[in-house]
Design goal:
The protein is an all-alpha fold. It has one domain (22-91). Helices cover 47% and strands 0% of the residues. The chain has helices at residues 5-9, 23-39, 43-52, 67-73, 83-90.
Length: 100
C-alpha cells in the first residue's frame, strides 16, 4: 500500500524523536512529493535516489510487501537527483538525537 502525503503527515508520534515530529519533517515530505511529481517518479524513488547519492550509505532497507512495490521502489536506483534538488531536500533538516 502506498501512503498518501496526508497519511504520512498523520503518522503518530512513535517516541524515538523527543518532542515528536518536527515541522521540518513535513516540509521535507512535501519537497519529496514536489520532486517526484516534477520527475514523474514516486516519492519512494526520490528517497532512494537521495539515499544512494550519500557517500556514507552502504545499504537500504526497503519495506515492500509485494513484488511490484519492490520493483517500483527499485526504479529509484536509476534516478539521479541534481545538486539543486538535493539542496532543496536537505535545506529544512535539523539534526536530532534519537532515543534507543
Amino acid at each position: 500500500m502506498v501512503m498518501t502525503l496526508d497519511q504520512q503527515f498523520a503518522l503518530p508520534y512513535d517516541g524515538r524523536i523527543p518532542g515528536g515530529r518536527k515541522d521540518w519533517h513535513n516540509t521535507i515530505i512535501t519537497r519529496v512529493e514536489e520532486i517526484a511529481l516534477e520527475r514523474n517518479a514516486t516519492m519512494t524513488q526520490v528517497a532512494i535516489a537521495w539515499s544512494l547519492g550519500k557517500e556514507h550509505v552502504r545499504a537500504l532497507v526497503i519495506n515492500a510487501p509485494a513484488t511490484d512495490q519492490l520493483l517500483n521502489a527499485l526504479g529509484g536506483m536509476d534516478l539521479v537527483l541534481t545538486a539543486a534538488e538535493i539542496q532543496y531536500l536537505e535545506e529544512p533538516y535539523s539534526s536530532q538525537i534519537l532515543r534507543h
